[in-house]
TrEMBL record:
Keyword Signal: yes
Keyword Oxidoreductase: yes
Domain Thioredoxin, chain residue ranges per copy: 1-178
InterPro entries named among the record's database cross-references: Thioredoxin-like_fold, Thioredoxin-like_sf, Thioredoxin_domain
UniProt similarity note: Belongs to the thioredoxin family. DsbA subfamily.
Superkingdom: Bacteria
Keywords, in A-Z order: Disulfide bond, Oxidoreductase, Redox-active center, Signal
Short name of one Pfam family: Thioredoxin_4
PROSITE patterns found in the cross-reference section: THIOREDOXIN_2
Name the record gives this protein: Thioredoxin domain-containing protein
PANTHER family: DISULFIDE BOND FORMATION PROTEIN D, GLUTATHIONE S-TRANSFERASE KAPPA
Length: 181
């Protein structure tokens, strides 16, 4: 695997532990039901390994989800005001309310920006900007170049993981952590 495509310098880190031997990466789609279903387990991992590993998210909005690209734009626009994690959480915690709706969910996402106390004018300018669109597209292109077929797609360091259980995620993390000692 091309590690430069898995994590870039500008990739978003929900948890950043520069001294850690482990980087956990999730390519995700905020409208994907599987991503929503695995979200609590991923949060459990973040809590369990807090301070021990870097946790990276990458955008991979799939074409079959009508609002996934705009959801990624909403998160990216929030990230530019320091609220990456707040918007990330809102997307998954409210996924059932807005997802799989053919109508654009721009106003719902704008409401999230208001709820997070963002400068909504700035958030909106970013949300609709070419710069945000290109940032999301860049992550998407990396996912395609890596040959990813769907979401969620996980990597522990440069190793692709196709988990069926939580242990399928924790075992490679534990192995990478123990091999560094």
């Amino acid at each position: 695997m091309d590690s430069d495509l898995i994590v870039r310098e500008d990739s978003h880190r929900l948890d950043d532990v520069p001294s850690s031997p482990v980087t956990f990466v999730e390519f995700l789609d905020f409208e994907c039901e599987a991503c929503g279903a695995v979200y609590p387990a991923v949060e459990e991992l973040r809590e369990e390994y807090e301070g021990e590993m870097t946790f990276v998210i990458r955008y991979f909005p799939l074409d079959g989800h009508p609002n996934s690209r705009q959801a990624a734009h909403a998160v990216e626009a929030a990230a530019r005001q320091g609220e990456l994690e707040g918007m990330y959480r809102l997307m998954f915690e409210t996924q059932e309310e807005w997802s799989h709706n053919e109508e654009p969910q721009d106003e719902v996402f704008r409401g999230f920006a208001e709820e997070l106390g963002l400068d909504v004018e700035q958030w909106e300018a970013d949300y609709y900007s070419d710069d945000v669109a290109q940032r999301v597209q860049s992550d998407f292109e990396d996912a395609v170049a890596l040959g990813l077929q769907g979401t969620p797609s996980f990597f522990v360091n440069d190793e692709f993981i196709a988990p069926e259980t939580l242990t399928d995620l924790t075992d490679p993390i534990d192995e990478a952590l123990s091999s560094d000692q």
